[in-house]
């Protein structure tokens, strides 16, 4: 049986020069709850999620994605994953051990083939959370994370082989080949995806809303606050989810979404979706047509690679 240690996406950690502006955005504008932090670190939770936090902001002179964090079922799977990665000569940043982040737990960090830091942990204490009410336009949870890679085929193979991710769907173009791989670690269509890009970077982080009404109200709040929308509102074909893409104050793309497909893994077969078909990108036809200019909005700045964050 294939080793499948990953259960879900935990959080995405970002470092930025203008800490105060970024902090204000993720709280007041984006609708996350600041739950703590000190010495240039702010932690943000989603009110509907049991995760201790879904976004970490850290002050740094350089903009970067510090890491992406995934959950595992138990400490034994964490240890087994670390052993397998070491045997495969994957660079390990920190050995498995007790974690000093909120909720504790047991985990470790390593570099994926692109040089980004990945954290895997188990046994993290849950946070008191609540049901998001009707018309309450704040994120329920962190939905998924998408990264840019110059070699998405290699990165896909790594996450499949070592972390047990499964391919749900692929976006392709007749002229450019395969452009994005949607990867799942549960019946949810994707919690991670890999896009073909000119450099390694964060493509976008996506936050799930209660429903379409709340998704549209959140989109409107962000627009009224002067947040730059780069694409949307619309509804994708792969994943069947809604989308509104914005830039945070440092140019990272963040998305409001809802209704991401839940798959029957016993019967699902990955599909190939042609990006030149307008229905692939937006079933509703309400967003601007996909173009090179729209695609570039998610390229982001080149990331800091093979360099672990200080915390």
Could you characterize the architecture of this molecule?
By secondary structure, this protein is of the alpha/beta class. The chain is built from six helices and 17 strands. The strands form two sheets. Strands 14-15-16-13-9-12-11-10-17 form a nine-stranded mixed beta sheet. It is globular and about 50 Å long.
Brief rundown of the structure:
The chain has 311 residues and is α/β, with parallel strands linked by helices. The chain has 6 helices and 17 strands.
CATH topology of the largest domain: 2,3-Dihydroxybiphenyl 1,2-Dioxygenase, domain 1
Strand content: 35-45%
Strands of the largest sheet, in order across it? Answer: 14-15-16-13-9-12-11-10-17
In CATH, the homologous superfamily of the largest domain goes by the name 2,3-Dihydroxybiphenyl 1,2-Dioxygenase, domain 1
* Major sheet: 9 strands, mixed
Overall tally of domains: 2
Give the overall average pLDDT: 97
Bulk shape:
globular
> Rounded to an integer, what's the Rg over CA atoms?
18 Å
How far apart lie the N and C ends?
A: 35 Å
Q: Low-confidence spans: pLDDT under 50, at least 5 residues?
A: none
CATH class of the largest domain: Alpha Beta
What helical percentage do the residues reach?
Answer: 10-25%
Architecture per CATH nomenclature, i.e. the level-2 architecture of the largest domain: Roll
* Tally of alpha and pi helices: 6
Tally of DSSP β-strands: 17
Order of helices and strands: EHEEEEHEEEEHEEEEHEEEEHH
Kindly name the structural category: alpha/beta
């Amino acid at each position: 049986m294939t080793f499948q240690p990953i259960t879900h996406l935990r959080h995405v950690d970002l470092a930025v020069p203008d800490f105060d502006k970024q902090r204000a955005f993720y709280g007041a504008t984006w609708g996350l709850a600041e739950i703590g932090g000190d010495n240039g670190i702010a932690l943000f939770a989603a009110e509907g999620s049991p995760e201790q936090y879904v976004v970490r902001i850290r002050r740094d002179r350089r903009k970067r994605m510090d890491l992406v964090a995934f959950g595992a079922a138990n400490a034994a799977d964490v240890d087994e994953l670390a052993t397998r990665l070491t045997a495969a000569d994957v660079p390990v940043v920190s050995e498995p051990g007790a974690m000093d982040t909120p909720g504790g737990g047991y985990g470790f960090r390593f570099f994926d083939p692109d040089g980004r830091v990945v954290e895997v942990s188990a046994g993290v204490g849950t946070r008191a959370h609540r049901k998001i009410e009707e018309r309450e336009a704040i994120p329920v949870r962190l939905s998924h994370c998408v990264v840019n890679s110059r070699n998405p085929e290699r990165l896909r193979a790594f996450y499949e082989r070592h972390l047990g991710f499964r391919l749900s769907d692929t976006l392709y173009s007749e002229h450019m080949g395969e452009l994005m791989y949607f990867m799942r670690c549960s019946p949810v269509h994707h919690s991670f995806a890999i896009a073909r890009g000119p450099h390694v970077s964060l493509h976008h982080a996506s936050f799930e809303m209660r429903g379409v009404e709340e998704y549209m109200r959140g989109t409107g709040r962000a627009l009224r606050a002067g947040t730059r929308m780069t694409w949307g509102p619309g509804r994708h074909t792969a994943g069947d989810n809604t989308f509104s893409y914005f830039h945070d104050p440092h140019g990272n793309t963040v998305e409001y979404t809802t209704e991401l497909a839940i798959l029957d893994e016993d019967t699902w077969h990955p599909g190939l979706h042609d990006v030149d078909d307008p229905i692939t990108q937006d079933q509703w036809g309400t967003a601007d047509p996909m173009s090179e200019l729209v695609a570039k909005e998610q390229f982001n700045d080149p990331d800091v690679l093979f360099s672990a964050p200080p915390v």
